[in-house]
Each structure stands twice: as C-alpha cells, then as structure tokens.
Write a structure and sequence with these properties.
Keywords: Coiled coil. By secondary structure, this protein is mostly helical. The chain is built from one helix and no strands.
C-alpha cells in the first residue's frame, strides 16, 4: 500500500511541476509575442520610410 501512496504522491508532484512549467511557458510565450509585435511594428515603420525614400528618389530621377 505504501508504494502505491508514494507513486501517487510522485505523480501529484509531477503534475504540479508540469503545471508550473506550463504557466512559465505561457508567460514566456506572451512576453515573446509582445516583443515580436513591437519589432514587427518597427519593421513596418522602417519599411514605410524606405518606400517613401525610394519614391522620392524616383521622382527626383524623373524630373
């Protein structure tokens, strides 16, 4: 009987550890998504600026 109880306690401990790990993974995922979103916004802004510069250069060439 004791072996079964020990096994049950081990499994419970593993479940708790797994839950904590999942929570940490989810929190890290959310953090990474925010960082990536900010980087994407920066890249979109830089892309717009480059597109505007290219258009200006094309306009100057065509004058």
């Amino acid at each position: 009987m004791e072996t079964i109880n020990n096994k049950s306690m081990e499994l419970t401990g593993l479940r708790k550890l797994t839950q904590n790990q999942l929570i940490n993974i989810i929190l890290r995922k959310d953090d990474l998504e925010k960082q990536l979103s900010a980087e994407v916004k920066k890249l979109h802004k830089a892309n717009r600026q480059l597109t505007e510069l290219i258009e200006e250069m094309d306009n100057l060439k065509n004058q």
